[in-house]
Amino acid sequence: MTSALKEAREGKLLLMIHRREPFPLYEIIKAQNLHYHTHKAGERFHILIGQKEAVESYLAAKED
Question: pLDDT-based confidence at 3, cuts 50/70/90?
Fold first, then answer.
């Protein structure tokens, strides 16, 4: 997970799919100065992690 967060800090987006909403992970993400967006899809939680601008750009493009 640490190497994935490092890549997110370098500008890449990370998509994590989890069976539960990972509340403890949110504090780790914030401590790394990263941003996240969580979406529940069926029984799974999709968590998009990255720099704030990258996450917002991805979400805006998805809306189009």
Answer: confident
Phi, psi of 25 (to 5 degrees): -65, -35
What rounded mean pLDDT belongs to the chain?
A: 91
Mean pLDDT score, 48-59: 94
Q: What is the DSSP code (8-state) at residue 20?
A: S
Cα–Cα distances (Å) from 62 to 49, 51, 56, in that order, read: 15, 17, 10
| H helix intervals, the chain | 2-9, 23-31, 52-63
